[in-house]
Amino acid sequence: MPDVPVLDLVGSGARVVFRRELKAYFLSPIAYVFGALFLAVLLWQAAAATIVDGAPASMQPFFAYLPWLFLLFLPGLTMRLWAEERKLGTIELLLTFPVEARQVVMGKFLAVMVFLGCMLLLTLGLPLTLGAYGRLDWPATLGSYLASLLYASSYVAVGMFWSSMTRDQIIALLASIVSLALLFLLGVPQIVEGMFAGAPAWLQDLLNGLSPYKYFQSIARGVFDTRDFVYFACFCGFFLYANTLVLQVRRQQKG
Amino acid sequence: MIEVERLEKTYGFARALRGISFSVQNGEVLGFLGPNGAGKSTTMKILTGYLLPTGGRASVDGLDVVERSLEVRRRIGYLPESTPLYADMRVDDYLRFCAEIRGVPRSRRKAQVARAVERCRLERVTGKNIVELSKGYKQRVGLAQAIVHEPPVLILDEPTSGLDPNQIVEVRKLIAELGEQHTVILSTHYLQEVEKSCTRVVIVHQGEIVADGTQQQLVAQQPSGGVLLTVRGPEQAVLSQLRELLPADVPVAVTARDGDRVHYRVAVDRQNAPVDEALARLVVKNGWDLLELRREAATLEDVFRNLTLRAQQEAVGA
Q1: Residue B313 pLDDT > 60, yes or no?
Q2: Which residue of chain A comes nearest to B53, CA vs CA?
Q3: Which residue in B has a C-alpha nearest to residue A16's C-alpha?
C-alpha cells in the first residue's frame, strides 16, 4: 500500500466499496423510481422545448433544466450513503475493515458518479433524435454533457458530506437541497448583485466565484478553460476531505 | 496477543473507561462481563479501531491499535453489538465482499468463503437475501463475516443477545469451536455463556476492572456460601436453638417449608467456618431429624452480583 495518500484514493479498498455501492444502487427500487422520475421529467420538459418545428436543433433547453433537476435528484441519491450506514450500524463494520476512511469515501463517491453517468447516457436518445432530423452541434453537446457530469460531482460531494453529518436521511436531504440551492443562487451574478448590493465588487465576484453553477455554465458554453476544471477538482476535494474529517472526528467521540 | 494498559475513554464529561488494564494470551477465550454501560463495548471498539482512546494504550500482536490501526484491523474479526449487516445483500455476496475488503487474495477467496459458510452452517441460505433470514441465521452470518479472513483474533460483542434458547445453544457451540482456533474476546450478560465457553473472565464495572481470573479463582475468592439445613422438628424451637448457638450477627432464615420439613439458611461466611459440625450436633442432640446439611456453592453469578452491586452501593453511599 503506498504511503502517499492521494495515490491510494482509488486503491483496492476503494474499488471494493465502489462495487458494493454501485450494485446497491442498481438493485435498489428507490434508485429506480428516482431515476425514472428524473428521466421522465427531464426528457418530457426538454423534449417539448428542444423539438420545435422549424427551429434549429439545440440541446440548450435540456442543459438549462438539468441544474434544477440535479438540485432535487442528487441529494436524493446521496442522502443514504452515510446516514443509512449509521442508522443500521453497518458503519461500525465498514470503518473497522482494514481500509482507510478516505478510500471508503472515494469508493462511495465514484459509485454515485457512475450511476449518474448511466442515467445521463440514457438521455442520449434526445440529442440522437435531434441529430437525425436536424443539424446538431455535437462538440458543444458533448461538452455540455461533460460540464453536467462535473457539475453533478460537486452536488454529490456536498450531499455526501451532509449525509455523513447525520443518521437521518431526511435531514441529509434537506440540508443538501438548501445548501446547494444557496450555492446555485450565488452562481447568478444578478442575484449576487441584488443580495449584496452594498458589498464591494471584489466580494461579489468572490461569492459568485464560489458557485459551481458559474463554472458549469462556462464549460457548457463550450469554453474549455483549465481553471474551470481545477475549480471542480478543488470543490469536490474540499467536501470529500471534510467528509473524511467528520469520520475521523467521530472516532474521538461516541462513534 | 492482546495487551491493554490503563486504557481511558471519555465521552464529553462521562468517563466510560477509567484506566483498565488486562491481557489476553494466545488461544484464550476471554469472557468480558459487566452490566450495561460498564465499558465493554467501548473497549472492543477501541481494540477494533472504531474509536480512539483518550488515554492509555492497547496493542494486538504487538501492534499499537492507534498507530498501526490498519495492520491491527487485518488481524481482527469483529462482530459489533446487535450484528449490523447489509440487509439488501445476498449472504454469499456479502461474505465475498467482506473477504475482498479484508484483503483475502482472489485465489483463496472462494475457498475461504466456503469454509466460513461451512463452519457457520450457512449452506442452506447462501443464495438468500440477508433481510429474509431469521435472527439466528443473521447472527451466524455475522460470525461468518468475522472469520472469513481467518484472523488470529475474534472480538464478539454480545454474540447471543436477542436469540431464542435453541439459537443461543447453537451459537455458543459455534463459538466454542471457534475458540479452538482463534483468540477470542466476547462480551455478554449471560453468565452461563462465560461458564460454558470462556477460559478466563474479566468483570468490568463503571469503567474499571473489578475482577480478572479463571472462573474457579473468582468463585474461590467469593466470601459468601451459607449453610443450608433441612430439619424435621418444631420450627420455633429449632430457630431459637440455632440463634442461641450462633453469634448474634449471623442471620438465620427459613427459606422453605415442605410438609413437616423446614429448610433453613444460616448465612455464615468462610471466616466462621467450622459451624457445620456444631449445627449437626445441635439438631441430633435435640432429637430432631437432620435431613440435609450442606454448604451453598458460590457461583459466578454471586461473584458478579457482589462485585457490581457492592460497587454501586459504595458509589451511592459516597
Answers
A1: yes
A2: A252
A3: B101
